[in-house]
Amino acid sequence: MKWVTTKSKKRLTWIAIALVVYGVAIFVKLVSVQVIQYDKLSTMAKENWDREIPFHAERGKITDRNEEVIVSNELAPTLYFMPSQNEDKEYVADAISKVLNKDRAKILKKLEQRISLVKIAPEAKNISYDQAVTIQQMQIPGLYSGVDYVRSYPHGNLLARFLGFTGVDNQGLAGIEYEYDELLKSSDAAIRLFTDAKGNTLEHVDDEWKNGKDGATIQLTIDLKLQKIVERELSQAMVEYDADQALAIAMNPNSGEILALASFPTYDPTKFSEVDPSIYNRNLPVFMSYEPGSTFKIITLSAAIEEDVVDMEHDHFHDAGYTMVEGARLRCWKREGHKDQSFYEVVQNSCNPGFVELGQRIGSDKLLEYIHRFGFGKKTGSNIAGESSGILFSKEAFGPVEHATTSFGQGVSVTPIQQMQAVAAAINGGTLYKPYTVAKILDGNTNEVIMEQKPEVKAQVVSEETSEKVRHALELVVAKGSGRQAFRDGLRIAGKTGTAQKVENGRYKDGDYIVSFIGFAPANDPEIIVYVAVDNPKSGLQFGSVIAAPIVGRIIEDAAPLYNIEKQENQIERNYVWGDELTERIPNFVGLTKEKVIPNLYPYRIQWHGEGNEVIEQVPKPDSQILQTDIVHLYLGN
Amino acid sequence: MKHYFKNYFRNFDYSLLFVYILLMLFGLVMIYSSSIWISIIQYDANPNFYYNRQLVNIILALILFTVAVITPYKRLSSKTILGVLLAVMFILELWLIVAGKNINGSKSWISLFGLMNFQPSEFAKLFIIVFFAGTFYRKSVNRGSMQLLTFDDVSYPLGMWLFIVLVVGFETDLGALVIIVAIALVVVITSGLKGKTLGRIFGLLSALGVVGMIGILIFKWDTVFNASRRGRITSFLDPFSDPLNSGYHVVNGYYAIGAGGLEGRGLGQSIQKLGYVPEPQTDFIMAIIAEELGILGVSIVIIGLGYIVMRGYYIAMSTMDPLARMLAAGISTWIGLQTFINLGGLSGLIPLTGVTLPFISYGGTSILLLSVAMGILINVSTHHKLEKRK
């Protein structure tokens, strides 16, 4: 009997041990779930219980350099429905479809889904605030309106091709919106309603507010006031010349900050789906790459002066209307030639053979080196979406003919922004700045500066002395040469015209030109530089001097007060050319008696105001330049 | 008689009684906590619907317990009692076959005159222990020793057992089947049969098992391995692969345990009981206990049940009486195994099978029969103490 018990005992011991081991295993497993997996599981459990009504945070705003809003957001709520909280889906569908005037059947189908939370989209996505209020007032159980936003553009189409636009979920799809999407994007807030399995909210668990974050504000270098001036001028040119396209850039030559950037035709960013993608995908000032024509001569000029191969004032050049390079006849734009001229005149006249001469004096390797040094042939790094790099001759293909044509801006392909970058360097004292459009990035909630772009110097390309001579040459162009239509009295505008035939399939296209003008002011200390190009204007004279120069003149004239560009007296006076309006500089009449004024025969009319023996006030001010057809008002007093 | 009781209660195993009552009351509180939402929202009943019913169950259970605890366990080997039990078992099984009710996918319920839904498989667990132990004991008394029992002597209870196993098997109540098979084997092993007889029994059972499995594979494949069972296997391997369907039970149990953490959310604060955990007052009550009371709740249950089981094994190991040994081992195994199947399924150690947590879960049949078993165990324990004093 004894050993039986022992045997049974032994067998039992094994069973007991197995049970103990298993018991410990279960205990350990349960506690490990409670401890090790606690974070993961409790989060998952909360997600299981909550029904999130999203409160979309605002996408980042885009402002101009003076913090004026260019792009912001407009409240446009979206409706959400918890099917388990309302059995009468028919009624809910009726109410929504009536207020929003949308298809009832489609909405009903959405409401009848067996999920915890229905987003009624697209039918009730981004409804108006008034509609949302109307629906809220109906107090329908289970129907919630979540905060949502759509982009709003207080200035309409302004800057549209640069800014880009956002899609249905507020994601950036083009332009700045696309390029800076990560920063502009907001993280959404939400109310987390904790519910039981049937969707009833839990009384004893507080609703949680999940914090969101507004997207960062992007402050551009763009100046809205200038942008408006530029776009006004371009849109007028588009109409006046029935042009295919037009573009403009305005920049601060001393920092590389882009002040205005325009492409035409433009579009409405809220209706982007209605326009051709080539409109919103191509930001012309950085996308277009074409033969620059004469504006490129500024580079040749700068290189020649810097290399000291020419005395602009005393060296002379005889232009017979063409020049021969390796048996090829390269014509000047003026058939009969400019005859004998100093090199300043070569620039004024935009004389092609004269620039071939300059190019040859520089030498082919040197010229190519300067072109690269001025930043051509590669992207400027402006961080504007869709930039091209242009096309240059390779060293091997740069034969004497290519060398010669490149000297006056043919045979190369460059982008407008590259030209801006290069010319700005040539005239600002020789510093090549990286052009940029984003000045600051600010935290959307605290307005703290996250990033600030400072002017970035890429290289010193020419000396200050060279730059000064270039400025003088270009002021002469406006005062006396091909840029005369950009002349504005006292503003000392300087610049260079450009006219380039477009190339199609390797051949020049007849009668299809891109006319351009690059101008800056004032010539002694440039504050602003503006480039305008009009693609295929349909007017009698397709010249940059006729079409683009006056636009730049008007832009700089209107921009002058914005950038404190004062009128100066010691300018290079404009030459009179037949057909120009006759102008006159008026003297100071103040202090003179009527009797002293009258005997002088002024070419303009004088209108007298008031009584007295002395002139006490005059309009316009002394030393103003006026047309001979204008009237000078003199006010008498004692 | 008076002397017997005086002596009996002087040596009474109060520790087991204390733990048993504690677990039942703890269970009652937790049933109330976990069933309020279900009562109101799901069944549109009054919030203490389950609480009231369990209270009645516990009172009935205590009456049965009292009867069992004062009945000397030796009586269980009497021919009359064994005969009555056998008859009851037969009737219940036949009843089940004829008029079984299908609840939650298992046809394992019968309606006792509309008074309560009764699970014959629960009764079968207790029956097998008592019937095996009693029969073996009677035979051994006839033969003079357990050692002398032959295979023929045990074939009759084994036959009865096979019948029950088949019926329960066809009910497709997998958890109950495992327990019935396991406790029968434990009783046989601990009986003290000689190795040769044991060997023959196991040989026969293995052969029957293989034949049975083949039979199941051929004829009953779809029923036994139905979609919901297959789902339980896949959800056991990776519950989060399909958290909304096959993994739903396990995942929501996990959420409850995980969300509670070490400290728990506090009594009554469970969120998972609000319709997320299915039947939170029965099979998944441990999940709600863990969610509300954290490690404290888990410890109460595991230590309490562990104490009962270990105490039972201690008695079985130290007693000289084979009947006492078989009863104690069988009952302990039953409680232990059922606890571990329940908690193992919940914690993901084994696939889920629908068995209740002893003494804690809501359920009339379970608490009534477990209370009888507790009565027997305490009775055995007390007699063991008495014997030691002699």
UniProtKB/TrEMBL annotation, chain A:
Protein name as it appears in the record: Stage V sporulation protein D
InterPro entries: Beta-lactam/transpept (IPR050515), Beta-lactam/transpept-like (IPR012338), PASTA_dom (IPR005543), PBP_dimer (IPR005311), PBP_dimer_sf (IPR036138), PCN-bd_Tpept (IPR001460)
Subcellular location: Membrane
Pfam families, sorted: PBP_dimer, Transpeptidase
Domain of life: Bacteria
Alphabetically ordered keywords of this record: Membrane, Transmembrane, Transmembrane helix
Regions that span the bilayer: 12-31
UniProt keyword Cytoplasm, yes or no: no
Alphabetical list of Gene3D superfamilies matching this protein: 3.30.450.330, DD-peptidase/beta-lactamase superfamily, Penicillin-binding protein 2a (Domain 2)
Family (UniProt): Belongs to the transpeptidase family.
Domain PASTA stretches: 583-638
From TrEMBL, chain B:
Subcellular location: Membrane
A Pfam family that the UniProt record links to this protein: FTSW_RODA_SPOVE
Keyword Disulfide bond (UniProt): no
Listed EC numbers: 2.4.99.28
Catalytic activity: [GlcNAc-(1->4)-Mur2Ac(oyl-L-Ala-gamma-D-Glu-L-Lys-D-Ala-D-Ala)](n)-di-trans,octa-cis-undecaprenyl diphosphate + beta-D-GlcNAc-(1->4)-Mur2Ac(oyl-L-Ala-gamma-D-Glu-L-Lys-D-Ala-D-Ala)-di-trans,octa-cis-undecaprenyl diphosphate = [GlcNAc-(1->4)-Mur2Ac(oyl-L-Ala-gamma-D-Glu-L-Lys-D-Ala-D-Ala)](n+1)-di-trans,octa-cis-undecaprenyl diphosphate + di-trans,octa-cis-undecaprenyl diphosphate + H(+)
Domain of life: Bacteria
Keywords: Cell shape, Glycosyltransferase, Membrane, Peptidoglycan synthesis, Transferase, Transmembrane, Transmembrane helix
Coiled-coil region list: none
InterPro entries linked to this entry: Cell_cycle_FtsW-rel_CS, FtsW/RodA
Membrane topology recorded in Swiss-Prot or TrEMBL: Multi-pass membrane protein
Regions crossing the membrane: 12-34, 54-73, 80-98, 118-137, 149-168, 174-193, 200-219, 284-310, 331-353, 359-380
EC class: transferase
Family membership noted in the UniProt record: Belongs to the SEDS family. FtsW subfamily.
Described purpose of this protein according to its UniProt entry: Peptidoglycan polymerase that is essential for cell division.
Protein name: Probable peptidoglycan glycosyltransferase FtsW
Originating species: Solibacillus merdavium
Source taxonomy: Bacteria, Bacillati, Bacillota, Bacilli, Bacillales
